[in-house]
Write a structure and sequence with these properties.
Order of helices and strands: HEEEHHHEHHEHHHHEEHEHEHEHEHE
Strand content: 15-25%
Number of domains: 3
Distance between the termini: 58 Å
Helix content: 40-55%
């Protein structure tokens, strides 16, 4: 059995299992500094995205399926792409078929990366992140049959990519036409000359394929002879600026508006400050604790609405601290998010058994962190007393 077939079968089995179990959560695929994430609700796909060129992928899908449509930009959580699509459908700017076209296109690219890379490590995390309040939002989710169809298309694309012997290339690279070959290209290849605006290091092979409305395999095959001659170099390119904005913080004075308190427990002051830099602008107060044992008194005194805690600390294990907090009456129902670089399935399972509400890998993605915090604080009722302080350190 070829490596491509083996990877396809493993991918298909994983997706089929999630569908059959009607699971809700996130499937994360990781390799080095990049990761891909597939969100599911009761076995149906919500959205698939990734850290590599996330905005470029979104812009391509919108251009392909919703060209000329004004898409909202304000979101509350993750995945923000799905939230923007559901808003657009609710406002009748985009129909269900268009929105699903965007979701399928993003999924196809993510699955292409999964099938083509046997070194990707998969990790499942159960959660109840999503709360769909309308049939319109639910109608966007992809069924198991739709997911299987996209998977087959991704496999077909990868097989063609491999057949053309393009395995050493990455469609996320950006072609750059070297100045010394400019005249030769204009005289020998008018078709390539027409692509000049896209051969400047600002567009990836995926981008050019979307513009040309051709498969990325065909576009890359067309450019390959010039790449082999050294006329075109393939270079890494940065993602586009994020198109999303957070909802504006209410102008209601702090004395009249309750701001939830979040305890950040990490032996690194740098990590605690990093978390504070994410949470405070979003309207939360932060209690920073470096030593969980010495900080128990502060936790009992301030009674935070939510706790974000490191798993590995010099003075105490995050598992033990979490277990202790769950045995303490005032913290039995307090949401606890475990934050750690140890993101294996065994670690997640052990954290859940210790009473953790959720699990977030280091370094945390700001949008994902804020989304988890909002999800777990939905049931928190504000106390009668007003807020008098924004941030403490213990």
């Amino acid at each position: 059995m070829s490596s491509t077939s083996h990877s396809y079968i493993n991918t298909a089995r994983t997706l089929a299992s999630i569908s059959q179990q009607r699971a809700t959560g996130e499937l994360t695929l990781t390799q080095n500094e990049h990761s891909w994430r597939l969100y599911f609700f009761q076995g149906r796909l919500v959205y698939a995205t990734g850290t590599l060129h996330r905005v470029r992928r979104w812009q391509r899908a919108i251009k392909q399926h919703c060209s000329g449509v004004a898409i909202p930009s304000v979101v509350n959580g993750e995945p923000w792409e799905y939230e923007l699509l559901s808003q657009s459908v609710a406002q009748s700017h985009v129909n269900v078929a268009q929105a699903q076209g965007v979701i399928k296109m993003s999924l196809e690219e993510v699955l292409f990366s999964w099938i083509s890379d046997l070194t990707l490590r998969s990790d499942w995390s159960s959660s109840q992140r999503f709360s769909f309040k309308s049939n319109a939002a639910l109608s966007l989710l992809l069924s198991s049959t739709q997911i299987e169809a996209v998977l087959k298309q991704s496999q077909k694309l990868w097989k063609h990519w491999k057949l053309l012997e393009l395995e050493s290339l990455n469609p996320s690279l950006s072609p750059v036409l070297q100045q010394a070959f400019q005249a030769e290209v204009e005289s020998l290849s008018p078709a390539l000359a027409r692509l000049n605006p896209f051969l400047t290091g600002r567009h990836t092979l995926w981008d050019i394929a979307c513009h040309a409305r051709r498969p990325v395999t065909i576009v890359t095959q067309f450019l390959l002879p010039w790449v082999q001659r050294g006329a075109i170099s393939l270079e890494e390119v940065a993602d586009l600026p994020t198109p999303i904005r957070q909802p504006p913080v209410s102008s209601v004075p702090a004395t009249a508006q309750y701001r939830p308190l979040i305890a950040c427990i990490d032996d690194s002051p740098t990590v605690n400050q990093f978390l504070a830099n994410i949470l405070e602008p979003a309207g939360y107060r932060v209690l920073k604790i470096q030593d969980p044992l010495a900080g128990m008194a502060a936790l009992s005194k301030h009674k935070p609405d939510l706790i974000v805690m490191d798993l590995v600390m010099p003075t105490a294990s995050g598992y033990d601290v979490c277990t202790f907090l769950r045995k303490t009456p005032i913290f039995q129902n307090t949401p606890i998010i475990i934050l750690t670089s140890q993101s294996g399935l065994v670690d997640r399972t052990r954290a859940k058994l210790a009473g953790a509400s959720d699990f977030l890998s280091k370094p945390p993605d700001p949008q994902t962190l804020l989304s988890l915090v909002r999800t777990h604080l939905q049931s928190v009722m504000p106390p009668a007393s007003s807020v008098t302080c924004q941030c403490w350190e213990e």
